[in-house]
Design brief:
alpha+beta, two-stranded antiparallel ribbon, two-stranded antiparallel sheet, 1 helix, about 20% strand, elongated
Length: about 60
């Protein structure tokens, strides 16, 4: 059931289908883009993203004091 993965992985079925024939190597073959996200990696990414977005407001508050 877990396919050898740890329990905190999230499976998302983004796209599954056939690629056009003009694409080299994989053209005409069935492919599936199945990313697996680790919850810890997602939490770190969101935290860093929030720090980058809020960085300007944090710096402006520190300089006012």
């Amino acid at each position: 059931w877990f396919h050898g993965q740890v329990i905190d992985m999230i499976y998302l079925d983004i796209w599954e289908g056939y690629l056009p024939n003009w694409i080299p190597l994989w053209g005409g073959k069935k492919v599936a883009f199945l990313p697996i996200f680790n919850l810890a990696d997602v939490a770190i990414f969101i935290g860093v993203l929030l720090i980058l977005i809020k960085q300007k407001s944090f710096l402006s508050r520190a300089s006012v004091k």
